[in-house]
What we know:
The complex is a heterodimer. Chain A is 22% helix and 25% strand.
Amino acid sequence: MDPQVFFPAVKTEVVEIAQRNKALGYRFAQMHCVKTPSEMFIIYTFEKQDLSIEQYRIPAETDGAVPSVSGVFLAAVLYENEISELYGVEFTGMAIDFGGTLYETAKPRAFAEVAAPVKKTPVKQAAVAE
Amino acid sequence: MGERTIIPFGPQHPVLPEPLHLDLILEDEKVVGAVPSIGFIHRGLEKLVEKRDFQEMAFVIERICGICSFIHGQGYVQTIEAVMGVEIPERAKYLRSFWGELSRVHSHLLWLGLMADAFGFESLFMHCWRVREKVLDIFEETTGGRVIFSVCKVGGLWKNVDDDTLRRIGGVLKDVEKDIRPLTDVFMRDYTVQKRCVGLGVLTKDEAFQLGAVGPMLRASGVAMDARKLGYAAYGDMEFEPVTENAGDCQARIAVRAREIYQSLDIIRQCIEKMPGGEVAVPVKGSPQGEYLSRLEQPRGEAVYYGKGNGTKYLDRFRVRTPTFANLIPLLHIIPGCDLADVPLLALTIDPCISCTER
């Protein structure tokens, strides 16, 4: 597999990046949020008809507003609503704002906290505990 | 302008195998807008990577969907292999393509059956699903499962298929092709099908590309994009070109899927003929560190998988962008202007898989 490049960017640049890529013949492929114990960021992926891609990484924060790219690519609207609902990242200027009703998870911002790994109990110990 | 009425469509509806809700805004019989609601089966499966060993997650990711299960498993292990720099044996690559194309055949037969059922052609629906059973029998024989296969692992495959079995399956697939031919002829030429589907839900080439449509939905509008051309698994060694149609309507989407069945059968034949010998797995040491985004062509279209490892056996993130998620916005674009009675066909025309979409 070829190494992949995720170009660093900041949130104030995303609309301009989307417009520039659109002018170059790219379309919006996807975006997603990544939350680790030390950082949180959003990855934007644009692809061309020849399947080549451009990827950008922007730092994000819960409650920090990111400009929506749905005005450039309407396709982004579901992704932005998903990130907003699961991670609590706010997007300004979304073409359609579901207002937190896309998934309606039992717990708000369910993906914003990093979960602890499951500690496996050996079968014998589990049986004794019961 | 007539009086506007809002009619709820779904989440439970005879044409929808899974729950999707649309609020349809009508002026008399014409639909002028649609507002979607999803979230009825959101399971948060992606979040489990933080709690489960990366090898165990291959089994979980397959369970995102019962139709695309194999390719979800393949997408996951392929992403982790890219992060870890693992090169799998050639035979494993060929077998992954073999099972991937079988998945496409059974998925398209399932969809053609559902489409026939949606426009009231019950016997056609039954014949499509009858033939599909033969494909599921091949899965059962080679993997042990008919829905969940659990054959992919990071480093290759859990199971091998011997050459004699593969050759015999090649013979079975010739019979399957003979069975399919009269069915696809009905879909392509029958007056009642044409009457119902030609000119319905037109998506132009530019709209399909800009709105992010993928798979048959995109190719039916004349855009020759197919992630298999990236050459993952054994596709780099296969001879094929993306199947396209130009009309961009329901009939074109039927035609693309029908023609793709023959293309998949041809790719399976190529896999069997060119199948290299040797092992199907290599040992994998260590834990994934780094990130990678890979793309695979599911039966419903391009799926995107992103994995990020931190050097432990638990991943930081695994993301799946499924084809139906990408095709929802194009669906909302083709609904306005149609009659209320056409909405079920249009909703079905994207081959919606809501389990995949919501994960």
